[in-house]
Amino acid sequence: MPELPEVETTRRGIATVMPGQALRALNVFEPRLRWPVPSDLPDRVKNQVVRACERRGKYLLIAFDHGVMIVHLGMSGSLRRALPDEPAKKHDHIEWLFDDARFLLHDPRRFGAVLWHDLADGPVLTHPLLAKLGIEPFDNAFTPQYLFNGLRGRTQNIKQALLSGDIVVGVGNIYASEALFRARINPRIKAGSLSLARAERLWASIKSTLSDALTSGGSTLRDYVNATGTPGSYFEIHAAVYDRVGQPCRVCQTPIKRIVQGQRATYYCPNCQRR
Questions:
Q1: What's the CA gap between 226 and 42, in Å, rounded?
Q2: Would you say 41 and 74 are in contact if contact means Cβ atoms under 8 Å apart?
Q3: What is the pLDDT of residues 72-130, one digit of tens each?
Q4: N vs C: which end of the chain shows fewer Cβ within 10 Å?
């Protein structure tokens, strides 16, 4: 699914176009997403000026004077800029129309969301979907000690602790496997068993993995493309373990293994990431 690098890449793309422009129309072709698109949303935002395009975790936040549109790309979604006369594709469910720009939300599995938070109800970060999210990985407050403290006492495996999102956001399934490989940490060990030194290695690996993913425009699984319609190139340039089961480790040549944790695939090198 689109993770933090993909969402941030998309945010950067729309942030060069949307802010300062009036949204002339929000066209909802299919309201049945993960949560129903509010029926009154098109009227709420018609001819309203976009003030900012921000991100919290994996959520895009399109801000207006009176509220914020909360957009999630789901399991296989993307938000791309389209030509004015480009026919909508199958699974293009939402359309944003500006005077000189057009964007389409493509979501084959309909696990995404387009919701509304009225600022009369408080700051958008108090919204139930956002209020309990952990720290951003590039926030200065995300330190090795912070990560170590967050993991202490946790009996779940380290991979699931990273995916929970209540310690640090944005380390989804793909990049959790990659970061654990870079840190040489086995994904099955208990989160609370990490020493401060190993937490520091993991902290550095999380930041470098996500940074590399941002530089390469994210990864491409299923239908993900960025805001310009371009697929990401992380897998071609950086991926060490994810989706490489049976292939030789790029470090030691040991075949990469695949296990299932919390109904999600985990990839690791049994030699480089010994328990």
A1: 24
A2: no
A3: 999 889 999 999 989 999 999 999 999 999 999 999 999 999 999 999 999 999 999 99
A4: C
Catalytic residue positions, numbered = 2-3, 58, 264
HSE at residue 240, side-chain half, CA atoms within 13 A, is 24
Of residues 114, 88, 82, the one with CA closest to residue 100: 82
- How far apart, in whole angstroms, are the C-alpha atoms of residue 141 and residue 130? 18
Q: 234 in helix, strand or coil?
A: helix
Residue with tokens 């999102």: 165
- 214 phi-psi bin (left φ>0, alpha ψ -120 to 50, beta other): alpha
Sheet holding 59-63, edge to edge: 52-56, 59-63, 67-72, 113-118
Q: What is the DSSP string of 111-139?
A: --EEEEEEGGG--GGGSTTTTT--B-TTS
Residue 175 has pLDDT above 50, yes or no: yes
Contacts for 43 with CB less than 8 Å, ≥ 6 apart: none
The DSSP code for 60 is E
DSSP-assigned beta bridge partners for residue 28: 94
What is the C-alpha separation between 175 and 162, in angstroms, rounded?
10
Is 12's pLDDT higher than 60?
Answer: yes
- Alpha-carbon distance values, 31 to 78, 106, 152, 222 (Å): 16, 13, 42, 22
| CA-closest candidate to residue 60, choices 71, 69, 51 | 71
Residue type, 178: E
Residue type, 46: K
Tens digits of residue pLDDT in 192-247? 999 999 999 999 999 999 998 888 765 544 444 445 545 444 444 468 999 999 99
Is the separation of the CB atoms in 189 and 183 below 8 Å? no
Query: What does the alpha-carbon distance between residue 93 and residue 24 come to, in Å, rounded to a whole number?
Result: 17
170: number of Cβ within 10 Å: 26
